[in-house]
Structures are given as structure tokens and as C-alpha cells.
Amino acid sequence: MCPLTPLVEATDTAAFGEKAVSLGAAARAGLPVPTGFALSVDAVDAVIRADPDVVTPLRAACAGGGRRAVRSSAVGEDSGVASFAGAHRTVLGVCRPDAVVAAVRRVHASGAEAGARAYRSRLGLGPCRMGVVIQELVPADVAGVMFTRNPVTGAEERVIEASWGLGEAVVAGLVVPDRYRLDTGGRVIERSSGEKDVALRAGPEGTEEVAVAGPAVHTPCLEDAQLAALHALAEACDTVYGSRGHDIEFALVDGAVFLLQRRPITGG
Q1: What is the pLDDT of residue 204?
Q2: How many beta carbons lie within 10 A of that of residue 73, not counting itself?
Q3: Of 28, 138, 250, 262, which has the fewest CB atoms closer than 10 Å, so is most exposed?
């Protein structure tokens, strides 16, 4: 059996983790999820052991060129009680097959880092069982996060934070992102420009910080048509996941929106 499972076939959270299964559900429903595959917990453990039955097909699958995003999908991560946002590693812009294998090992190792262990301990969770998602990297013009319920007040509204380039600039706090609020009908009720003086772009090996100069620093990065597309994505997620509380990471390229990650909104 091939150890690489297409995302659309990832259905077992105990094997692949919630993130992979959530993306698989979105892909099966036709949502705009970047193409990729999942490594089960057992397959990741085999990569750590350098088992050729897994490492060889993994290298072969990534030998065709193109940049990839390698993301954690630990069992329990992105669940209704634990997000692990920022606790586990994401490796972006990976090109070479050997670099993909190394990225899987880095993601696995992040589950044992102090912050992740402390979070698991606080929630009373057991040892980390790490699955991994490997996808085509979306070369984002604009990216960010969208909460479909205000994570601070609990209000039924969309809260969107976005910046130029890859969304890690927002997630990692490298910029003060633009902020938008939409009501549940998609009407813009607030927009404020941030200070987007850095953009993360795919470089020759991984990502690189590129200075943003001139008016673009304070120019809003999302127009009304793009906000409408994000509102439509939120409504599609309501249907797919049977709930209205989503924490979404998104990217836009040439106006097209992509769903990168989706987790329930949690308090922890």
C-alpha cells in the first residue's frame, strides 16, 4: 500500500489528524484546497526511522519540481478543544525531495518542543502523535486569517486580517495586518489599514522577507470583490462542516481564493 494518501482520501482522524481530515472534507466538497497528500502518524514515524518503504515514495512524489507547504496534522490538533496554532511547525517553499523529507522531520520534532508540550500538558493531552500534510504552495498575492465569529467578543461576524504575500507574515506577527469586519450577510462594517512593510515570498530555498515600500504599506490589500469571495468561502464552510465557527487561513492569487487550513474556533 502506498504510504502517501491523497488529501481527498484522508478520513480517519486517529490516523491522519484533524487538519488533514478537515482539508480532505473540504476537497471532497469541491472547496478550493491546494492539491496535496497526507502522511499518517505511522508514515511520519517511518520517515523518522528513515524507512525506505516510506522515504523512497515520498522523495519520488516530490521529484517533479514545484514548491510545497509541509504542515503539522497531529492527532487532536485543530480539534474543538485544542488548536495548537503556532505551537507546531509549518515549513513553506520546500523544493527538493530531500528537503521535503527534512521538513517532515522538523514538523515531527516540533511536537516535542517546550511550547507544544506545555500546551498539551495544560489541556491534559497525551503524547504527541504527529501526522503531516504536504501540499502545493500557493504563491499568494495576499493571505491571512478569517474568523467567522469574533474570537474576542463572540459576535456573529467575519473578522479578517490580511497582508501582502504568504500568510505566515500575519500568523507570526511580522506585520500589523489590515483588518476587516463583515456582517453575516457579507456587508463590510469596518476596514482599517495596517502597516504591511514586509511580505513573505517563496525564495530559492524556503521563504524570504521582502521589504514593502511606498503606498503599498498602508494600501488596503483586499478589495470588495475579494472580501465577497471570502464571505462565500465562509458560507461554504458552514455547509461542509455543519457549524458556523471557523478559524480559516486563506490565500488569494490573481483574485482566486484558496483554503489553506480550517479549524474550529477554540478558546485555547
Answers
A1: 82
A2: 30
A3: 28
DSSP code at position 165:
B
CATH topology of domain 4-136: Dna Ligase; domain 1 (3.30.1490)
Main-chain dihedrals φ then ψ at residue 105, nearest 5 degrees: -65, -35
Residue extents of the structural domains in the chain: 4-136, 142-264
Greatest CA span in the chain, whole angstroms?
54
Query: Which pLDDT value is given to residue 85?
Result: 57
What distances in angstroms separate CA 7 from CA 3, 96, 177, 197, one per listed residue?
A: 12, 21, 30, 35
Please tell us whether the domain made up of 142-264 is placed in CATH 3.40.605.10. no
Grid cell 503606498 — which residue?
Answer: 215
As given in the structure block, the three cell numbers for residue 242 are: 455543519
**Chain-wide mean pLDDT for the chain?**
91
pTM exceeds 0.85 for this model: yes
1 pLDDT above the threshold of 60: no
Q: Assess contact for 178 and 196: CB atoms under 8 A.
A: yes
Listed range (29-38, 186-195, 201-210) with the worst mean pLDDT: 201-210
Window from 24-38, 85-99, 158-172, 251-265 with minimum mean pLDDT: 85-99
Q: Which amino acid is at 172?
A: A
In terms of phi and psi (left: phi > 0; alpha: psi -120 to 50; beta: otherwise), the region of 100 is alpha
pLDDT at res. 127 = 81
**Residue type at 160 in one-letter notation:** I
Q: Catalogue the E-assigned strands of the chain.
A: 4-6, 36-39, 68-74, 90-94, 130-136, 142-147, 158-164, 178-182, 188-192, 198-202, 207-211, 246-253, 256-264
What average pLDDT does this structure show over 168-176?
Answer: 93
